[in-house]
Amino acid sequence: MTVTDAAAILVLIFLFAVLVRHLPRIWRGERETLRRIERGLKPFWPFGEVLWRGLVRALPPLIISVGFLIIGVSLTFVPVPTENRAARLDPAGIGLLLAAGCFATCFVCHITVVLLNWPKWVVPPPRRHEPGALQEWIGARDTPPPS
Fold first, then answer.
1. Do residues 25 and 33 lie in contact, with contact meaning Cβ atoms separated by under 8 Å?
2. pLDDT digits (tens, 9 = 90+) for 92-121
3. Which of 37, 50, 58, 100 has the most CB atoms less than 10 A away?
């Protein structure tokens, strides 16, 4: 493991710790926490207001996927025995596959919450009534411009 690898893992762990600390407040929809996130991140967000609302709506699965990403990246540095490697699967390889599968599942869930606001059980209760990004875009396209 190089110094750059270790630094990247430490940055991910720090980000994950900060996000997990705020997860219960995000779930409850506390305004002060959401304002703090908006003040810190929104100036760097280049994708528009609709996707910003989708990102905030989908923070819980995103935070969980970052946790699985940390586990998967960390498992790549576990030493693997080289003798008779084809005959058995090593625990680090199995763990890496499981972490990658869980990360992919959480990330796909994140994307569906941003675009469709579905599944509802993953969306924080104060935001379950909001439309997904696709619904907002289609609705904006269908309404005539003001004259």
1. yes
2. 778 888 999 999 999 999 999 999 999 999
3. 58
**Residues sharing a CB contact under 8 Å with residue 29, sequence separation 6 or more, in sequence order:** 124, 125, 126, 127
And the tokens for 78?
């576990």
| Region of 15 on the Ramachandran plot (φ > 0 left; ψ -120 to 50 alpha; else beta) | alpha
- For 8-27, the DSSP string reads HHHHHHHHHHHHHHHHHHHH
Candidates 133, 131, 124; CA nearest to 58 is 124
Q: Give the long-range contacts of residues 15-24, CB within 8 A, separation 24 or more.
A: 15/66, 16/63, 16/66, 16/67, 16/70, 19/59, 19/63, 19/66, 20/63, 20/67, 23/59, 23/60, 23/63
If you average pLDDT over residues 122-145, what whole number do you get?
87
Mean pLDDT (whole number) for 120-138: 93
What single-letter amino acid sits at 15?
L
Reduce the DSSP state of residue 61 to 3 states and report it: helix
Q: Using CA atoms, how far apart are residues 145 and 147, in angstroms rounded to an integer?
A: 6
